[in-house]
Amino acid sequence: MHTATTRPTAAPLPRTALLTGVGRRRGIGAAIARGLAADGYDLALSYHAPYDRRVLGEDADVELLAEELRAQGRRVVLLPGDLADPAVPGEVVGAAREALGTLGALVTCHCESVDSSILDTTVESFDRHYAVNVRATWLLLRAFAEQVEEGTDTPGGSMIALTSDHTVHNLPYGATKGALDRVVLAGTHELAGRGIRTNVLNPGPIDTGWMDETVRAACAAQMPGGQLAGPDTVADLVRFLLSERGAWIRGQLLNSNGGFATPAV
Asked: What residues form the membrane-spanning segments (predicted)?
């Protein structure tokens, strides 16, 4: 059995965070950014505008979000880049550290998500989903952990990844999110000697502009309360997990989805 290296008690984590997938002000990433800014975090925001245009049909407006957060006295750096390129995740972490110093938190909200099924998914699409959802998340976590020398009293960090359990007619997205879960959860054990804690968060269906009325009604009908939540509900849990009060929650896949698709008993 592998035993994690015992690590000395460290100082509080720095209030600096790298968030990925923060292209649009109405997205989950933007809600998390606002919440962390309110908690005193300086932020590096990674985004890929071509994805927002290609998949969501919207232009990235993260510059306006940055202005909003800077007006609150927060330092904010914008880091565009395609995480499908294996060189980009490390470059993004390096640029965030150069701008903000040691990072205390990494929250990954980025994804590739294009609907397709077992019979019509292309190899090209599957490979891009894997590159963005799995490989990039691993490389981001690795670069984040490499800030810290194992066995020292240097502050470690907290990493949270957003996931999903959707698979039917969404094969490459769902399959690669499952792989993401395994990569991130391993981090709590493998990186314990560096003071890194990791969690995976499944928020269920959150309407950030991708739902039409039919989808919205169908999803709401599967909620015990009959209504959908907004991005702020995700931000609230992330803020707790990054706080000292939430620090004992680690190595968990948390379903914070309002009971979505939970069978009635």
From this structure: none
